Recover the amino acids of this structure.
């Protein structure tokens, strides 16, 4: 990740979803009541702290779209999320490639899925910073804020974990 932009990343795992109904695809699972509450809480916390991404890249899965709706309502109604099919079941290289392609945005929010969100966080900040912030697993509606390390020297030093919000 050698480009100067984006300078801030927001990594948001979708909020808690219900189990798939019989015959329902995983892709179509919706947030459950707890998930809707989690999405609203983390979105309100982000807004209160002034966290407003320039661009939102969101998985096309229903539960991610619903999480994005909460973020949009709380932070900036004018932000239109970019829905990206590749974020659903996407691999770490896919997520990294999407971030690298955002040259014209100062800050980017990714709304996606575990385990890739956890893998992405570890790839960007290294295992020590990741484990300090997320000791067990990346929780639903967990929002990590990363800032580009302008003093970076060497692999794994490009990003600094600035904040970690949970509902």
């Amino acid at each position: 990740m050698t480009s100067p932009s984006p300078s801030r990343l927001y990594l948001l795992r979708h909020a808690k979803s219900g189990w798939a109904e019989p015959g329902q695809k995983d892709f179509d699972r919706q947030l459950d009541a707890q998930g809707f509450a989690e999405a609203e809480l983390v979105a309100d916390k982000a807004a209160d702290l002034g966290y407003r991404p320039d661009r939102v890249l969101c998985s096309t899965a229903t539960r991610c779209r619903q999480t994005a709706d909460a973020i949009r309502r709380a932070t900036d109604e004018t932000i239109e999320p970019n829905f990206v099919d590749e974020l659903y079941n996407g691999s770490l290289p896919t997520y990294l490639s999407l971030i690298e392609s955002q040259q014209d945005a100062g800050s980017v929010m990714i709304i996606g899925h575990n385990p890739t969100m956890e893998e992405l966080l570890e790839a960007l900040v290294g295992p020590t910073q990741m484990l300090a912030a997320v000791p067990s697993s990346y929780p639903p509606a967990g929002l990590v804020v990363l800032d580009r390390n302008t003093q970076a020297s060497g692999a794994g030093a490009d990003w600094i974990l600035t904040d970690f919000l949970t509902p």
